[in-house]
Design a protein that fits this description.
The protein has 265 residues and is of the alpha/beta class. Helices cover 44% and strands 14% of the residues. The chain has two domains: 208 residues, NAD(P)-binding Rossmann-like Domain (Rossmann fold), CATH 3.40.50.720; 36 residues, no CATH class. It binds nicotinamide-adenine-dinucleotide (NAD).
């Protein structure tokens, strides 16, 4: 039975074959939603996304779009409307994990980039899509924040944590503002998910602490009550739920999907 009444979704950061964005697209397509997959460049694997999704029986398109650029977003959104019609579901997934765990060693560039992509990228996408959701009197937004947006976690760069706290704050404020106008805004806060970002984090943990990669992965798994880092499809399932008609009474919720891992301080 179809549980999502949304017809067309935009998912940002959807190109990487191992990424959370790609898994979100896959799970939404399995739920019958047409998908516009956006990512910075075809080089990350974006060109194959639409074909994969169409094989699941939905309409799809892949579009290069930099979420830090309002012009790039405006062009992409116009293309989506022409190819797939009005957008009623927006998933802000694009994100970067710049920086290092020692606050004093984080470069100004890493602060700028984290805020530009993780926070302002989400702001830019919402600014482009909400006006039409208001005209339609309906819409759903799901932001991919992080468990690090709910509490400080050992080893995570302060610039990343601060940017994801900001996404959580943005989610709640937008939820409050638009609740009476038919737009729900929630966030998923992933814990440890086995993507390229996870691979890079494990390598950095290994380098910074002078331990093997295997030991870094074992330490990470031991910090998770369920005992393992999850497959990106687990985040896709959570997004499908928040987007679905089973969650119509939920807005302003920032939901950890983290195997029981604590949000920290
Ligand atoms: N992997 C984890 O353990 C984990 C944990 C918590 C939160 N997250 C969040 O989940 C989201 C997806 O992460 P992932 O692990 O799949 O990472 P990833 O690096 O595999 O994917 C991120 C995607 O975002 C894209 N992107 C980066 N900058 C962009 C820009 N300016 N415009 C458009 N796209 C851009 C990248 O090209 C990439 O395809 C991110 O927001 C991340 O912060 C991941």
């Amino acid at each position: 039975m179809k549980t999502i009444s949304s017809k067309t979704a935009i998912v940002t950061g959807a190109g990487h074959p191992k990424g959370i964005g790609r898994a979100i697209c896959r799970q939404l397509a399995l739920a019958g939603v047409n998908i516009a997959a956006l990512d910075l460049t075809d080089a990350v694997g974006l060109d194959t996304v639409a074909q994969d999704l169409e094989s699941l029986g939905v309409k799809a398109c892949s579009i290069e779009c930099d979420v830090t650029s309002p012009m790039s977003i405006s062009n992409a959104v116009e293309q989506v409307r022409r190819s797939l019609g009005p957008v009623d579901l927006l998933v802000n997934n694009a994100g970067i994990a710049a920086g290092v765990s020692d606050f004093l060693e984080i470069r100004e560039d890493d602060w700028t980039a984290s805020l530009a992509v993780n926070l302002l990228g989400t702001v830019n996408m919402c600014s482009a899509i909400i006006p039409n959701m208001l005209k339609q009197d309906r819409g759903v937004i799901v932001n991919i924040a992080s468990l690090a947006g709910l509490g400080a976690i050992e080893g995570i760069p302060a610039n990343y944590t601060a940017s994801k706290f900001a996404v959580v704050g943005l989610t709640k404020q937008l939820a409050l503002q638009y609740a009476s106008q038919g737009i729900r805004v929630n966030a998923v806060c992933p814990g440890s998910i086995t993507t390229q970002m996870y691979d890079n984090l494990m390598q950095r943990m290994s380098d910074e602490n002078g331990i093997s990669l295997e030991d870094a992965i074992a330490i990470e798994s031991e910090s998770i009550p369920l005992g393992y880092s999850a497959n990106p499809d687990q985040i896709g399932h959570a997004v499908v739920f928040l987007a679905s008609d089973k969650a119509t009474y939920m807005t302003g919720v920032c939901m950890p999907v983290a195997g029981g891992m604590s949000a920290g301080l």
